[in-house]
Amino acid sequence: MKVYVIEKGWYSDRHIIAVVETEEEAEKISRVLDADYSEWDTKQLNCDRLKFIVTDYGDTWDVEYHEYEDWFPDITETQVISDGLYCVFANSQEQAKKIAQDMKAEELGRKAGIV
């Protein structure tokens, strides 16, 4: 379901004024209150398939939820982006990290001729 979120303010003062179901309502309220609105899909965050960017720094792993549309927009399946950088679809940060670690182990095994 699509909803329209009406916001006002800048940076730390930015806040939600309303959430409405039609763009017409959003336009009217935004115009009257001199606010901005944006469209949101309530089904966008499917917890069984969240997109994470996982980075292997050698001694630590960083797992970040992929919330920006312009980060690797064409990637729709789990894959290695580059050496030490993985795009992973998972249902939690912990699962994303484990999947990336398994991918790295498989890659190392292939390089060693084990897999």
Outline the fold blueprint.
Blueprint: E1 2-8, E2 15-20, H1 23-33, E3 36-41, E4 50-56, E5 61-65, E6 79-82, E7 85-90, H2 93-111
Antiparallel strand pairs: 1-2, 1-3, 4-5, 4-7, 6-7
First and last CA, distance: 45 Å
Provide the number of structural domains.
Answer: 2
Structural class per helix/strand content? alpha+beta
Percentage of residues in strands: 35-45%
Total beta-strand segments? 7
Low-confidence stretches: none
Q: H/E order of the elements?
A: EEHEEEEEH
The residue-averaged pLDDT reads 89
Descriptive key words:
single chain, 115 residues, alpha+beta, three-stranded antiparallel β-sheet
Structure report:
This protein is an alpha+beta fold and 115 residues long. The chain has 2 helices and 7 strands, in the order ββαβββββα. The longest helix has 19 residues, at 93-111. The termini are far apart. β4 (50-56) and β5 (61-65) form a beta hairpin. The model has no long low-confidence stretch (mean pLDDT 89). It folds into 2 domains: 2-41, no CATH class; 50-111, no CATH class. A 4-stranded antiparallel β-sheet has the order 5-4-7-6, with helices on one face.
